[in-house]
Amino acid sequence: MQTIFVVDDNDVNLITAEKALEGFYTVFTLPSAEAMFEFLDSIVPDLILLDIRMPKISGLDALNMLKASKYIDIPVIVLTGKHDPDTEAAVYKLGAVDFVLKPFVAEDLLARIKAALA
What we know:
This protein is an alpha/beta fold. It contains five helices and five strands, in the order βαβαβαβαβα. It has a five-stranded parallel β-sheet with strand order 2-1-3-4-5, sandwiched between helices.
């Protein structure tokens, strides 16, 4: 089973994403980008779902760090409630494969993950 990291500082978002993905993927929920980078030392996921607005290291900064590291090939889908053209353009410029607005529909998220992993 493929592995997905869900990185978000909001517990409700982590639980919602985990419930949507359970049974389809092995899911690890992580409350911060710092936790994600620590966890990457032991497990490398097939895909990362990454929130933008997080304290300390934002999702945009984390995406930039991922794409400048040995983890460059891990597909990243940004999950965010922040929708504006500049943010969406920045996400794609930094290397994300998709941009999903919260709240998301589980079936839509699963389809986007499947496409990203294909």
